[in-house]
Amino acid sequence: MKNKVVEANVYMIISKVFSGLNMNALKYLLPFWMSPFTGVTLRCVFAAVAFWIIGFFAPAEHSTRREKFQLFLLGALGIYGFMYLYLVGLSKTTPVSSSIFTTLQPIWVFLIAVLFYHEKVTWMKVTGILIGLGGALLCISTQQTDDLASDALTGNLLCLASSVAYAIYLVVSNRILKSVGMFTLLRYTFTGAAFSSLIALFFTGFDALVLTVPIHWFPLSILLFVLIFPTVISYLLIPVGLKYLSTTIVAIYGYLILIVATIVSLSIGQDRFSWTQLFAILLICGGVYLVEIAERKTSAPAAGT
Question: In this structure, is residue 297 part of a structural domain?
């Protein structure tokens, strides 16, 4: 089991590094090379097809029709909702700002556990939540719309909502994984997400300049990176983390997304350094750290019984 835990941590590091680079790649593509609606559809459909193909070579997994339907709904609502909010939000704000909100996921995970699973509430957790939310509000209220962020307020609010949607996906998928296999989870959740994205695309229309003739090789290579690495490989690794690590620990790895996206964004000019933004990051990271420390303290006695 110890080796599995180490392996799960390595997988989460790889997954979140890809997710951080995904912020910058998508920011380059959106909205000029493809619309957010089209981007979501390409990711969901590509991943669904890839996971069904990969699943044919994986060991057989058993699940009930009810579990498969639950996974389909989780994908149709959870994954599609997260990706839609995330891509639309990112198209309007900067990669650093959007990645700031991914670090709030452990807080949402804890709040979901309190509301629906009767998680124990402590003063340290409450303090951490308030500090983290204070950082989020600071980022939302102070960032100005400029040449790098076409509508910073709307974009930040959508990214905030996407982090809530992803936290819901983490909690629900973590519980379903206890009775179904990893490939079953991926196949049916992304099939549900692809279903929702195709319905939405029917009303919005397909808009992807990156796929038109003549071929634009650089943006096309960026799109292929997004589809293969942050979408397929990253999501392929996440269930391993969910299986052997706590949901909160998995969400904590969102820090890597922030670190990678910040370094790359400042390096290539997709964002500008801001002391206010830095203070917001410190507040959110500090708040999440308090929640995580409190989580370990409350789970320690149970681990020893």
Answer: no
Residue 45 burial (CB count, 10 A):
19
> Which residue reads 């459909």 in tokens?
45
Q: How far apart are CA 242 and CA 133, in angstroms?
A: 25
Residues 186, 235: contact at Cβ < 8 Å? Answer: yes
Residue 213 CB burial class (10 angstroms; 0-12, 13-18, ≥19) = exposed
4, 244 contact by CB (below 8 A): yes
Q: Answer yes or no: are the C-beta atoms of 284 and 103 closer than 8 Å.
A: yes
Between the two ends of the chain, the Cα-to-Cα distance in Å is 19
Residue with tokens 């400042």: 266
pLDDT in tens, 276-304: 888 888 888 888 778 777 766 665 443 33
DSSP string, 115-137: HHH-PPP-HHHHHHHHHHHHHHH
- Convert the pLDDT of each residue in 13-32 to its tens digit: 999 999 999 999 999 999 99
Residue 210 is assigned to a structural domain of this protein: yes
- Residue-number span of the structural domain to which 236 is assigned: 2-119+146-266
Domain total in the chain? 1
Domain membership flag for residue 197: yes
Backbone angles phi, psi at 113, to 5 degrees: -65, -35
51 alpha-carbon distance from chain centroid: 18
